[in-house]
């Protein structure tokens, strides 16, 4: 009879025993465990997350030759080893759970073809954690689709992605060895899946939920039901469609409140975790408090904001603006693509559609301890750093412009190069300068997302070029300096190239630095999990950005898979990382309770 493996046993083990206990975690590569044992602190690993991070760091610090050998130690999917039944027990279990042992002849043939193409292109087998983000197994269709997509990646990208998938495989294996299922993370993942069944999109797997559509209202009803089941004392939908749940303090509903949550609308063909993850992590954590019969010295108010993305109407942060008292009355008169005014859409959804009622939603900030938000990162940084959680230092301030450069359209063959007034090359020069200027300035970003030559022709020097600028930085002063330098450079380019310029500012948003006391709570929560602290700014806007206008706020980022892609059906994270987010959120709640007894 085997003694159950636990962290205490691992921490007490000498190196040979430690390596033996972790046998099979990394395929045919005991050196990973050997080096992780050498990395551990004197008191041993604090948590499963701590151990996993040390294992991952051991691989990251290895030579490229060692990393390549680790990749090549893994078998092909539905390959010769599977047919010959020579896989390790762990690989056999994983490929079986994903249904690869039950492929149709067509599926098996396609996988063999893909294996050959992939190995021929990259020189190593295709690596995929086939048990997926939930741990229960991807479908064969999902596996083949991922195979086909990644076949076209670059060598560097695929090398890194192969290693990240190896770490995910190890995470699943080790979680089971230690019998530590991510129960809360699995619940959040399941809720996200169930929520994604409400969509306006017609294509399978596509998710579109815009303000007050039938899918949007179904999401609101579903969230309210989950909140009631979780044990919230008060649950309702407010005058703009926000779903609000209140879990009372030990002293009753009149106590100070901590505000948290995020948005449940999506972009068109968006991801399942953007916004929604932050709502459901909070709901799952409150559910645990309710099940344990625990109350805190303050109330917890969780808000599912009805709108953040600005997809149906040209009004972003509509839900959180109502709470900050900055809801613009003119928004009610805006019309959607079908000509339906916002106030009419509200009334059709059972909301009053009247500004006087919306004004009443503004929160009395004296009653709040602040706002905290959990959010999927929507970028590649945490994924590349092999870290499940990151501390947000600031939500970037931004400035957007639409511009047009006017030169002289002329014959491409007869106009000498030194006599041209080329509008397109002027904008191209500006784009390259903006890229270099942002690169030289830590955490600033600059994007020319639109670049158009109206009525362009292959044999005509462009006389006009339209473009956009999106400039962002963690601090307003940093953003302003970026804007000033790029505008000054545009003037220089225009003078030298003898072209005219028109530049229109279309949007300016202030940066939202995290409140130091709340950020410190997130930091201690992450450290309690045995994870190193990693700080990063948010390049995207969030509801926390609006709440920042009236109360202190701080955010926690959760790692995204697939290179951190977001606003895309490929957006993903794992139930294990969701579990850590729940544990960090719970830790923050209890720290706050100690500070506000």
Could you characterize what this model shows?
Keywords: Hydrolase, Manganese, Metal-binding, Purine metabolism. Residues 11-174 form the Oxo-4-hydroxy-4-carboxy-5-ureidoimidazoline decarboxylase domain. One of its GO terms (biological process) is allantoin metabolic process. One of its GO terms (molecular function) is hydrolase activity, acting on carbon-nitrogen (but not peptide) bonds, in linear amidines. It is a single chain. The chain has 597 residues and is of the alpha+beta class. It has 3 domains: 7-177, Oxo-4-hydroxy-4-carboxy-5-ureidoimidazoline decarboxylase (UraD-like); 185-393 and 513-595, Aminopeptidase; 397-509, Alpha-Beta Plaits (2-Layer Sandwich), CATH 3.30.70. It is built from 22 helices and 16 strands. Strands 1, 2, 3, 4, 5, 6, 14, 15 and 16 form a 9-stranded mixed beta sheet that branches. Strands 7, 9, 10, 12 and 13 form a 5-stranded antiparallel beta sheet that branches. A two-stranded antiparallel ribbon has the order 8-11. Strand 1 and strand 2 (243-247) form a beta hairpin. Helix 3 packs across helix 4 and helix 12 runs parallel beside helix 13. The longest helix has 23 residues, at 155-177. The radius of gyration is 27 Å and the shape is globular.
């Amino acid at each position: 009879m085997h003694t159950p493996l636990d962290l205490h046993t691992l921490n007490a083990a000498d190196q040979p025993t430690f390596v033996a206990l972790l046998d099979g975690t990394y395929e045919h590569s005991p050196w990973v465990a050997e080096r992780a044992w050498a990395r551990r602190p004197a008191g041993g690993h604090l948590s499963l997350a701590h151990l996993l991070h040390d294992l991952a760091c051991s691989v990251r610090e290895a030579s490229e030759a060692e990393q390549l050998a680790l990749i090549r130690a893994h078998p092909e999917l539905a390959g010769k080893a599977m047919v010959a039944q020579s896989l390790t027990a762990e690989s056999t279990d994983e490929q079986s759970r994903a249904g690869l042992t039950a492929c149709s002849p067509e599926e098996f043939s396609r996988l063999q073809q893909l294996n050959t193409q992939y190995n021929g292109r990259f020189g190593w087998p295709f690596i995929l954690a086939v048990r997926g983000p939930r741990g229960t197994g991807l479908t064969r269709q999902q596996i083949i689709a991922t195979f086909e997509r990644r076949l076209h990646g670059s060598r560097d990208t695929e090398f890194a992605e192969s290693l990240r998938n190896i770490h995910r495989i190890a995470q699943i294996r080790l979680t089971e060895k230690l019998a530590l299922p991510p129960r809360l993370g699995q619940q959040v993942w399941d809720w996200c899946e169930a929520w994604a069944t409400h969509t306006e999109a017609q294509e399978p797997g596509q998710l579109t939920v815009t303000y007050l559509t039938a899918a949007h209202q179904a999401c609101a009803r579903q969230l309210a039901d989950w909140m009631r089941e979780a044990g919230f004392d008060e649950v309702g939908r407010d005058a703009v469609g926000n779903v609000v749940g209140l879990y009372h303090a030990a002293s009753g509903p009149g106590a100070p409140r901590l505000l948290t949550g995020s948005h449940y609308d999506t972009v068109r063909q968006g991801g399942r975790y953007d916004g929604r993850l932050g709502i459901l992590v909070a709901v799952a954590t409150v559910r645990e408090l309710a099940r344990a019969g625990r109350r805190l010295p303050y109330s917890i108010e969780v808000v599912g904001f009805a709108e953040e993305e600005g997809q149906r109407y040209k009004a972003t942060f509509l839900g959180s603006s109502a709470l900050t008292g900055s809801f613009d009355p003119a928004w009610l008169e805006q019309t959607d693509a079908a000509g339906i005014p916002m106030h009419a859409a509200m009334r059709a959804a059972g909301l009053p559609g009247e500004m006087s009622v919306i004004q009443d939603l503004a929160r009395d900030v004296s009653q709040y301890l602040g706002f905290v938000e959990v959010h999927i990162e929507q970028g590649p940084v945490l994924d590349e750093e092999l870290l499940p959680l990151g501390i947000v230092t600031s939500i970037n301030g931004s400035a957007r412009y639409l511009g047009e450069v006017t030169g002289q359209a002329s014959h491409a063959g007869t106009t000498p190069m030194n006599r041209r007034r080329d509008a397109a090359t002027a904008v191209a020069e500006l784009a390259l300068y903006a890229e270099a200027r942002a690169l030289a300035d830590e955490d600033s970003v600059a994007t020319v997302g639109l670049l158009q030559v109206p009525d362009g022709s292959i044999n005509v020097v462009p006389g006009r070029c339209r473009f956009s600028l999106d400039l962002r930085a963690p601090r307003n002063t940093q953003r302003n300096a970026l804007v000033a330098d790029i505008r000054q450079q545009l003037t220089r380019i225009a003078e030298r190239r003898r072209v005219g310029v028109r530049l229109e500012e279309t949007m300016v948003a202030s940066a939202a630095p995290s409140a130091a006391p709340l950020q410190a709570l997130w930091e201690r929560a992450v450290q309690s999990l045995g994870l190193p602290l990693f700080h990063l700014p948010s390049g995207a806007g969030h509801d926390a950005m609006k709440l920042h206008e009236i109360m202190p706020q701080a955010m926690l980022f959760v790692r995204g898979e697939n290179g951190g892609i977001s606003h895309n059906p490929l957006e993903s994270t794992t139930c294990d990382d969701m579990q850590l987010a729940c544990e960090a959120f719970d830790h923050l709640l209890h720290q706050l309770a100690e500070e506000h007894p």
